Amino acid sequence: MVAVTYGDAGDLVLDHRQAGPSPTALRMQIGARLRRMREDKGIGRAEAGEAIRGSASKMSRLELGRHGFKVRDVLDLLDLYDVHDSDERASLIELVREAKKPGWWQSYGDLVPNWFEQYLGLEQSATTIRGYEVQYIPGLLQTPEYARAVIGLEYHDAAYEGLDRRLTLRMTRQSILHRPVAPVRLWAIIDEAALRRPIGGPETMRAQIEHLITVSESMPNVRVQVLPFSAGGHVALGGPITIVRFAEHDLDDVVYLEQLTGARYPEGHEADRYQKIMDLLAIRASPPASTTTFLKDLLKDS
Hints:
The chain is an alpha/beta fold and 302 residues long. It has 2 domains: 77 residues, 434 Repressor (Amino-terminal Domain) (Orthogonal Bundle), CATH 1.10.260; 190 residues, Endonuclease, Chain A. The chain contains 12 helices and 8 strands. Helix 1 runs antiparallel to helix 5, helix 2 crosses helix 3 and helix 10 packs antiparallel against helix 12.
């Protein structure tokens, strides 16, 4: 569990205690194991779905870890896959029970839509996150003042009654970068437009840029690149891209495309295309050392 408080000077204070595996990660592990069992038996998703009184699409969601498991369904699938070893069955059922325990972010379920709550679980389970942002500074790198201004814009009212809780949620997310053990590696590519767009006023923007400089110079697990205007047009101008990678080798990277009122999770060849787009953006963006110089020059001009 991660606690967020504010110090005497109003600074954010994070409790960086290491949390256990998130329910999202556990669901993905369960889904991957069940998928391998199904494929080893040559059974299609439709047939497996029928065994649990569902459909092929339900099996797809289960195997991707995007839907919670019922013990009864898992037992029926193990029977279908001829998995009768008592230890193997018991270990999988224990994972199912562990995956039912709520993550800390689920206490904010009244504030965030289901599609974003799902992403929060992926983010907390990640070992590496690669992202491109064109509109705002990435949420994992925002200062409290900048985040407050962005949330106020998103909800059209800086006095919005849920603002403080949303701010706490956003700041708590950042604790994954500060874990004493296995902090998440973040590779953020930020479009120059996001750095020049005045959010929250001049002082807020100066503090935000200073924060990016500090992070770039002091946190080895964070890599920041700026994609300058001089790089010209590119296919990612339509919106942000996030790619989440996990420690488990049998779990595929997840591509997350956030939109105004929802999100998409491309799969297969489409997901591969976004991987290539991120690779191209990293090549076209300024290297980290040049990015730090760019940010310092931006401060001088502000």
